[in-house]
Amino acid sequence: MVFKHALGALALFLPAITCKEMAVNELLAAEQYDSGIVHESIMAKKMSTWDQERAAGLMSSSLYPELGYTPCKNGFAQAIVGDANNTFKCSNTDLYHFLPHEALGSSMGEGSSSWGWTSDSGREFVAIGQADGTAFVEISKEGKMVYLGRLPQYSVPSIWREIRAYKHYMIIGSEAVGHGIQIFDMTKLLDLDPASPKTFDAKVDLTGHFNELPVGRTHNVVVNEEKGYAVSVGAAPRNSSCAAGLIFIDLTDPSKPTTPGCAAQDGYVHDAQCLVYRGPDKNYQGKDICYGYNEDTLTIYDVTDKTNTTIISRTSYEGASYTHQGWVLDVNNQEFLLLDDELDEERGAGPAADGFPVTFIWDIRSLEAPKQTGIYKSKTKSIDHNQYVIGGLVYQSHYGAGLRVLDISSVPSNPTGSDVCEVGFFDIYPEDDASPGGGLVEFVGTWSSYAYFKSGYVFINTIERGAWVAKMTSKTCPPPPVCNADNCLRAFRSNSVEGRLAESQKFCGEFTKLLVTDVSVVPGYVKSACVGNVIERASSACACLPTPSS
Ligand SMILES: *[C@@H]1O[C@H](CO)[C@@H](O)[C@H](O)[C@H]1NC(C)=O
Ligand SMILES: *[C@@H]1O[C@H](CO)[C@@H](O)[C@H](O)[C@H]1NC(C)=O
Ligand SMILES: *[C@@H]1O[C@H](CO)[C@@H](O)[C@H](O)[C@H]1NC(C)=O
Fold first, then answer.
1. 441 C-alpha to center of ligand 1: Å?
2. Which of 160, 181, 413, 523 could cross-link with 175 by S-S, CB 3.0 to 4.6 Å?
3. What is the pLDDT of residues 152-187, one digit of tens each?
4. Residue numbers of the domain that contains 190
5. Are 522 and 467 members of one domain?
């Protein structure tokens, strides 16, 4: 009874939890989502953005020089001092290396997904998605990428190339018709000489090739290594027999991939995570579960029998616009997961009404009735994309706002998300930093990252520029700013000057976006009150102003 009493007392102090999960609007689902209208509109928007970038020459590697180790100091990594295009906003994250796509053997550039593999002896390798194939690098002990070679695309190029590891193989899918899924053995890289990078044959050098997709396209690939299978998701067209759902690929013999069946019941699956269930829901202990991110819903499948899968639940949520991807907090105790929506910022839907990215927190302690318990809102405008949970941190790719790392260890005790904080970030796309909110709601910048390496090196792949290696310098959220009411801060919010606070907020809104070293841009009252290091003092004062209310 003591236990019960203690729980009751604790409940009083828990923040109020508002649940935002919703039943599926079946009419909207049928008209907008099952038909493919929404997904086709996102793909069309992306293609038009990338066509414009191509036309403007922005996919050209000649714009992007190789960059070396650059520490993050006072919020900026100045990889080329005085060059705004090579000065990156950052927090708790240093840059180790950047190489443009061309230096990684690509003639087209246009980066996408990536995944890593660690050899038995601890060497760290990355497979990097590009429109015209997969580039391979080893990350040296010093954090430098060493280019080893590439595997060209199987059929025709496509910017959509998704890669996951299965043991020492890379599973490579593409939206290109006729591509199928390439299965490449990473141990082929172990003895390559970086002095003469090797271009593998897209067909002959594969361990296996899965060609039982309807037209050879797949939007993404997923792996359940423990159970020895991969999954193709979003294999168009939607009117094929598997409905672009989960197409299982048995990898028992990677040289002869076969399909035992598919799960078509909820139509198109955009991304998924398939795991042996370990968690509190007694009905599903040890079952083979897929968490599906299905455009308008979180759909949870029991796929234990690949010839007869069932849907456990299908749940929508406030703001659902394009349910994109997600990851469970703890694969060994599946109680919570994080979900990203790729269209809510652009549509201004639900909690993304202001265009700032939303991470949706779900309580999945009941697989049959998942609850959407809270959110985390990023403070930089962009679109949140792929995310992977490692330990108590989630590594997110926010297109133009770069790599964003959140401490989510508080979620099990406070699933409202109010205690989630940003540990660090590295903004690989300075081009949009001066925009309102610090970024653009556009499909530019980074697609994915890979942060599972024991060395702590985080690999980041970007659409326009190329590949990056970064490393966190701390895994603790920065403390709130220390705000001493000195002359400088007092001048910023002086009550005796009409409109001064608003004027300062406006100044700070611009001043903190880009690295400022020129004292002449600072207003007179700031210069005279913040004597000494004007720029540094002004920037501290800016961190201590209340956020403007409008
Ligand atoms: C920065 O890049 C943009 C293109 O993104 C270009 O127009 C501009 O000239 C570059 N600025 C510098 C200083 O190189
Ligand atoms: C499936 O849809 C495509 C268009 O995406 C169409 O050309 C084809 O005829 C359809 N096939 C069937 C069997 O309905
Ligand atoms: C499929 O699974 C359902 C429920 O799990 C079961 O009732 C049904 O008999 C199964 N069908 C086949 C053909 O195995």
1. 20
2. 160
3. 999 999 999 999 999 999 999 999 999 999 999 999
4. 16-472
5. no
